[in-house]
Design brief:
Largest interface: A-B, 33 and 25 residues
Radius of gyration of chain B: 22 Å
Strand content of chain A: 35-45%
Distance between the termini of chain A: 35 Å
Number of helices of chain B: 6
Strand content of chain B: under 5%
CATH superfamily of the largest domain in chain A: Immunoglobulins
Helix content of chain B: 55-70%
CATH topology of chain B: Growth Hormone, Chain: A
Helix content of chain A: 10-25%
CATH architecture of chain B: Up-down Bundle
Number of helices of chain A: 2
Largest sheet of chain B: 2 strands, antiparallel
Shape of chain A: elongated
Strand order of the largest sheet of chain A: 3-10-9-5-6
Structural class of chain A: mainly beta
Structural class of chain B: mainly alpha
Number of domains of chain A: 3
CATH class of the largest domain in chain A: Mainly Beta
CATH topology of the largest domain in chain A: Immunoglobulin-like
Oligomer: heterodimer
Largest sheet of chain A: 5 strands, mixed
Number of domains of chain B: 1
Order of helices and strands of chain B: HEHEHHHHE
Chain lengths: ~375, ~220
Amino acid sequence: LPFVSLAADPAVISPQDPTLLIGSSLVATCTVSPDFHLKAEDLYWTLNGRRLPAASYAALGPTTLSVALARLNGSKQQSGDNLVCHSRDGGILAGSCLYVGLPPEKPVNITCWSKNMKDLTCKWAPGTEGETFLHTNYTLKYKLRWYGRDNTCQEYHTAGPYSCHIPKDLALFTPYEIWVEASNRLGVAVSDVVMLDILDVVTTDPPSDVHVSRVGDLEDQLSVRWSSPPALKDFLFQAKYQIQYRVEDSSEWKVVDDVGNQTSCRLAGLRPGTVYFVQVRCNPFGIYGSKKGGIWSDWSNPTAASTPRSERAAGGCDPKGGEQNTTLRRELKQFFGWVKKHAYGCSNLGIKLYDQWRVWLQKSHKTRNQVGKEP
Amino acid sequence: GDSWGILTFLCAALCNLPALPALNCTEEPGAGQNIQKTYDLTRYLEHQLRTLAGTYLNYLGPPFNEPDFNPPRLAHAERVPSATVDLDLWRGLTDNARLAANYRAYSRLLCYLRALDGQTGTAELRHRLGHFCSSLQGLVLSIAGVMSSLGYPLPVGPSAPPGAPGAPNDFLKKMDDFWLLKELQTWLWRSAKDFNRLKKKVPPAVVTLRLETRGF
């Protein structure tokens, strides 16, 4: 395709790349270079590819055409609206990028957490409910309360678009002042300062080695055992634990809140012959005598177990009927029992393994569904 | 005895058999395979560029993302090397000149693309650009590999003038960005033809053999 290579800029637009508040008006002018032998009447304007009405034009001189834009809306794209001055045949003579938007509002809801007292991650929300239409930059700053130096966080977007991660050099026992600055072409807004002590916002890894097992032949109970998170084992703290469990086919979790400090718990009031998924999480509060609660860890990976079902209820009147494959499961259980008695070296085979397989199946089924949803 | 040795050796060379026990046989990656690899890379980049350009031009906004958009190329936009060349000139290029033109062009295009990276607004766009730059870097290295396997020296000199002036205003910068993507696209089309041509001229494998002197 032939293209025209030009030595000098054919025309000049004023203002060039202005920044404007939403709702303001603008008069822009296009002045053609004398080398081009074009007159004001040979020109027209477009904004984001759409021709502007001739009624808004005015010739300010033989080679200068102006256009009046009233009550501008927010920019269509963050790179700026494209206001272009054309010659009659459609050729582009000059252009100007209009940045129309709003100044940022104070960022709000700053929340932070420290993983095992080694780092600090903070997230916040932009103040504006709608958008500013302009590219807005966020900077997280922090300083120790009684020391002068401001520090700037460098690693952004670690926990979502409005987040930052401070990986090292954190001091304990002295509170930090933390704030977020939002800036764009139209101004700056600074959030309120949040003051926190690292020891008050500690979270940790989920408890490890979660085991769920039957309590003898009791049909309605399961026993849950776990270990305290290893990363904090050298620190003096109290731990609170929470357990949540659900029936295999349900998405409704039941939470056991008052587990306290122990590393074991018995779940009661369960349905016989049912597979349950169990998760545990930890809150390391009171680290080094901190009076505030800590932050709950993530839930541990689900562990599965099933309550026994007495063989006498083989008539199977289960009014809920929500259990799938009960016959299959019963048969499998009998099979495994037989295997244990008659086969050597198959001691790992058992109904427990089958239950773990069901957990894995549900998880991978979920992932497969998510993958399928990707564009 | 000895003549049989030579005959077997020649047979092996012709049939590309692996090293014979009595001889040291080293097989180089083969300029032919490198050329094929480079050709495949240009096709892959062409595909990647379609998505990247679509996203970037939407970010620039209309009229840049309109299909028939054809702005003038202003003087300073000529720093981007043009792929367009006279047909007879292109046909008459030596292998060395052909490869050197590709190498120089992509080295400079890579520099300009990298400069784009820091200024664009959305995180998604920056991520795509970063990925594309890595792939483009791979292409530059691949071309260098072909040149060295054919014994050509790499073109010397600054790939882009370090103090190159940027566009004087934001709109002209958008036009520069548009032309950068256009030239990248044209170069990838052209390179596919360049490497196709080179493929036909270079044999599939170059096997170099070192004969140990055994009194032949």
